[in-house]
Design goal:
By secondary structure, the protein is an alpha/beta fold. The protein is 24% helix and 23% strand. The radius of gyration is 21 Å and the shape is globular.
């Protein structure tokens, strides 16, 4: 540790300058030392750092980047504790997108939470989501930004660390976050093609409100999800498959159509969801296609 180093977290990075919030809540303007470039490490929003503050109008320096708990490439952010995957009765839930985001979170070591908003409009969607996803072991919240239902539970989750919200356009992410924390999001959306985040010039920014730390991002790119992902490993990001690992007749097993597959048997017996498996097969095909074309 540097003798005069302070501890802080990067809240924004623009044009080679990094804005870090110190333990005293003051925001400091910093540059990264040359050693990070040599190590091919680029500071990210959400990074916990040790820094030397500047003096007067001069910027300070990032001395150390502390170990990351999680890391995303696009947007370039680190140390997300929870990604809140928001769905609602309107617009109709895109479960394939939801499953894709769940894989993304699992691959990066980020804990997911499923947040069913607009429960004042339709109270049946939460039951459907629980049937489909309870076996994941992730928190599932029924909330309404209008009536305030479930907002206290959402607030408790948001206190766990750096959080972000993701989901379709129109599900009420910004309204929900404002109701829970008072913060206002300008979050970008995920492309309908479930491939790339829409182009935008905005930068990711970490926002603070009391105990809450929320990441406002220009959107999530799901293109990187398939980079380097061997198709056989996709199943490892489905927590409900774990109980059946090693019970299949063949190893490795893709849980696709193999004889003696324990996962397929569990689905047939009603222990696992049929639709969830069907969507897994859809994503498996995407992973296989990306793997086949990885050198193109």
């Amino acid at each position: 540790m540097e003798v005069n180093a302070y501890e802080g977290v990067i809240v924004k990075g623009i044009g080679g300058l990094y804005y870090a919030r110190g333990e005293d809540t003051e925001v400091h303007v910093l540059r990264a030392k040359g050693k990070f470039r040599k190590q091919r490490i680029k500071p990210m929003v959400g990074d916990h750092i040790l820094f030397s503050p500047g003096s007067g109008d001069e910027h300070g320096w990032i001395d150390e980047i502390l170990p990351r708990q999680s890391e995303l490439v696009r947007p370039a952010v680190a140390n997300i504790k929870y990604v809140m995957l928001v769905i609602a009765p309107q617009p109709a839930p895109d479960y394939l997108l939801l499953d894709t985001l769940l894989v993304m979170a699992a691959k990066q070591g980020i804990s997911p939470a499923l947040v069913v908003n607009k429960c004042d409009i339709d109270e049946t969607l939460i039951d459907e989501v629980r049937r489909e996803y309870t076996s994941l072991g992730a928190p599932i919240l029924a909330v309404s930004a209008v009536t305030g239902k479930g907002i206290d539970q959402l607030q408790e989750l948001l206190k766990a660390g750096i959080c972000c919200l993701a989901g379709q356009s129109g599900v009420g992410k910004s309204t929900l976050l404002s109701a829970a924390t008072g913060l206002e999001l300008q979050t970008g959306e995920i492309s309908k093609k479930i491939a790339r985040g829409k182009h935008t010039t905005r930068h990711a920014e970490l926002m603070f409100s009391g105990e809450y730390k929320v990441l406002d991002t220009p959107g999530f790119s799901l293109l990187d999800l398939w980079d380097g992902l061997e198709p056989i490993n996709l199943k490892d990001y489905y927590p409900e498959f774990a109980d059946y690992e090693g019970q299949c007749k063949f190893a490795p097993c893709y849980h696709l159509s193999e004889p003696g597959c324990a996962v397929l048997a569990a689905v047939k017996e009603g222990k696992l969801g049929t639709k969830r498996l069907e969507r897994y097969h859809t994503l498996l095909k995407k992973a296989q296609e990306a793997w086949k074309n990885r050198y193109d």
